[in-house]
Structure to design on (669 residues):
């Protein structure tokens, strides 16, 4: 029981971290960035390449996260900015982000090959820690800790800093923000930087945790991430955090009590029921404020 | 400015197209040189890539041996089936219609074979599976489908019997992949073998091929306190499962299916692989001249031999023998007839014959991981 709760918190923390970045871009632009999972994959590979180049992990992790952020800025420049202001930018942005996802995946395939790559043995000290009747590896605890810290930093950044206020203002209304002197393009680019950096961090942590990275590794979180941001309320950062952990726990307890064949069925049934009861998701904003 | 605004999307599309094209450019081995053209559909990419690489090495080593031996001459055409049904079908269509091959070797996975083999059956092209181990749904597709790989049903009961003698277990927890023909078929056979041995199954869990996290399933299984863990999975999943089981504190024995039979499994699972026991259709210690010749050929190629390369090597030898049996004629019907006549052929797998159902028939063995290597359990 305790062990399963721990397993759920562990996988939930990765879902949450991935979904927080996903939902941030949606909150600002009202566009689903389908390349988010591809950034997740690329960041995992970048960290792997850095570790293979004999960089210590404590240096490789932040470097890979920063690289993921820069990829986010490139993504915004190529796939979203050229379309901004067009009448159908929501749909065309969705499609062009899908194209970028394919490009990113193909790049990973070209550089790293189709096989599963792994971090070298001993990248992280292999130590087990007992908590009550359950056990967790030091790595798992560090991953949960890192995710929580990153999500807290994002929340503070959005709530307390000038950049955070600008991003929230753009989310509210880009036109009003521009009138108030906010550099809208810059604020959006920064939102992409943050979003992709967090998605990248989730990728690196996922790669470390399960030590199995392939060009299609993003697929295993892509759909889950989408479920999490819908469950939490599109665009809501606290919603994504809560829903991420909730999905992780639901999955784990379904496996423990109903059997693993029901895992996805139960997760998506919960999503379905929540949407019937609360179409905006758990923490979603009212839609009426648009226009 | 307007140019810059218009450029990115087409640029992206162009890049995508280029990337996709590159990805598909797994060029065929150069044809030509005469003799019978043999198509080999192998999983060189995707989840089964670790087997495909070994199979390619086995086929190339065997071709060198056969073509140097004089008499029969074979020309290979190796294509990647990407471990998927879809690409397997595409490759088969190319072999049958465009390349007009005399016979096909492969595809690597039973899953792919179940979809692609019917095309060859329809076109009356003999297919020799070299790693399809699903008990049903392969050779019963039709009379042109053969295989030199023992099925799980032929290997696992014997392996589990031997494992029980050695390890003395009464209860088992079972974990299997339920989205793949091979791992699911392996599970069915394991379940029956456990029941036949009087072993009680205290828990059963499943996973899907893309899964990376098995902690929830393993925690539930370990909580049921079985004597032994039984796993049906492909090598990549198997390595992660075994590693995570050891992390979750499992110190007991682990019995695997045919998917574990790969050096890649031991390499990726590391120290966690120690003690894992698995049935195999290739006895690496066999002193038979045919096996020694195979080992020498693999050593020359610098490849670590395993069951998959041994079965691939054997596949080429069988086709060469089939051509010899039909008087050196290399038509599709000639090879089909020759395969029917083949009996007690000396191969790295032992004395090889086909069953009346065109399945493989030879003696299986059991092996266990010790000091980072598979060692035959005597």
């Amino acid at each position: 029981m305790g062990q399963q709760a721990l397993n759920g918190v562990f996988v939930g923390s990765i879902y949450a971290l991935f979904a927080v970045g996903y939902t941030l871009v949606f909150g600002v632009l009202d566009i689903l960035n389908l390349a988010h999972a591809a950034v997740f994959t690329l960041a995992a590979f970048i960290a792997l390449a850095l570790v293979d180049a004999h960089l210590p992990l404590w240096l490789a992790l932040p470097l890979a996260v920063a690289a993921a952020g820069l990829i986010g800025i490139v993504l915004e420049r190529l796939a979203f900015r050229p379309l901004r202001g067009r009448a159908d930018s929501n749909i065309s942005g969705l499609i062009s982000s899908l194209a970028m996802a394919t490009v990113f995946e193909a790049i990973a395939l070209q550089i790293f090959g189709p096989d599963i790559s792994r971090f070298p043995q001993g990248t992280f000290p292999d130590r087990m820690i007992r908590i009550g009747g359950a056990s967790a590896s030091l790595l798992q605890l560090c991953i949960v800790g890192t995710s929580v810290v990153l999500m807290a930093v994002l929340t503070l950044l959005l709530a307390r800093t000038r950049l955070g206020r600008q991003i929230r203002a753009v989310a509210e209304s880009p036109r009003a923000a521009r009138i108030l002197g906010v550099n809208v393009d810059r604020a959006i680019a920064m939102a992409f930087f943050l979003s992709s950096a967090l998605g990248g961090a989730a990728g690196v942590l996922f790669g470390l945790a399960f030590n199995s990275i392939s060009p299609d590794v993003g697929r295993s979180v892509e759909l889950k991430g989408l479920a999490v941001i819908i469950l939490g309320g599109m665009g809501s950062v606290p919603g994504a955090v809560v829903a991420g952990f909730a999905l992780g726990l639901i999955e784990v307890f379904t496996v423990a009590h109903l059997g693993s064949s029901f895992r996805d069925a139960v997760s998506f049934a919960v999503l379905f029921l929540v949407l019937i009861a609360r179409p905006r998701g758990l923490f979603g904003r009212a839609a009426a404020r648009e226009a | 400015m307007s140019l810059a605004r218009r450029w990115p999307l087409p640029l992206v599309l162009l890049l995508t197209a280029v990337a996709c094209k590159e990805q598909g450019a797994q060029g065929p081995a150069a044809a030509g040189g005469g003799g019978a053209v043999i198509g080999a559909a192998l999983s060189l990419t995707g989840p089964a890539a670790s087997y495909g690489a070994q199979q390619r090495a086995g086929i190339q080593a065997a071709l060198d041996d056969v073509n140097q031996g004089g008499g029969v001459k074979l020309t290979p055409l190796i294509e990647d089936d990407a471990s998927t049904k879809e690409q397997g079908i595409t490759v088969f269509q190319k072999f049958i219609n465009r390349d007009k091959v005399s016979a096909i070797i492969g595809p690597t996975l039973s899953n792919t074979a179940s979809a692609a083999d019917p095309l060859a059956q329809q076109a009356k092209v003999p297919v020799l599976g070299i790693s399809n181990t699903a008990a049903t749904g392969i050779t019963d597709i039709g009379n042109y489908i053969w295989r030199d790989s023992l099925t799980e049903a032929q290997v696992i009961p014997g392996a589990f019997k031997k494992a029980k003698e050695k390890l003395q277990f009464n209860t088992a927890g079972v974990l299997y992949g339920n989205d793949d023909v091979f791992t699911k078929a392996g599970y069915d056979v394991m379940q029956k073998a456990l029941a036949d041995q009087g072993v009680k199954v205290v828990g059963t869990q499943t996973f899907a091929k893309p899964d990376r996290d098995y902690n929830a399933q393993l925690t539930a299984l370990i909580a049921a306190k079985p004597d032994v863990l039984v796993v049906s999975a492909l090598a990549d999943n198997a390595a992660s499962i075994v590693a995570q089981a050891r992390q979750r504190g499992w110190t007991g024995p682990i019995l695997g299916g045919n998917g574990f039979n790969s050096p890649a499994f031991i390499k990726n699972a590391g120290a966690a692989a120690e003690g894992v026991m698995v049935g195999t259709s290739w006895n690496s210690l066999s002193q038979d001249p045919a096996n020694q010749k195979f080992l020498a050929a693999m050593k020359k190629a610098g490849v670590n031999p395993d069951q998959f390369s041994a079965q691939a090597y054997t596949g080429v030898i069988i086709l060469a023998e089939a051509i010899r049996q039909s008087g050196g004629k290399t038509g599709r019907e000639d090879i089909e007839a020759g395969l029917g006549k083949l009996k007690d052929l000396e191969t790295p797998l032992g004395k090889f014959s086909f069953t009346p159902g065109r399945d493989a028939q030879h003696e299986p063995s059991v092996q266990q991981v010790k000091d980072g290597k598979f060692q035959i359990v005597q």
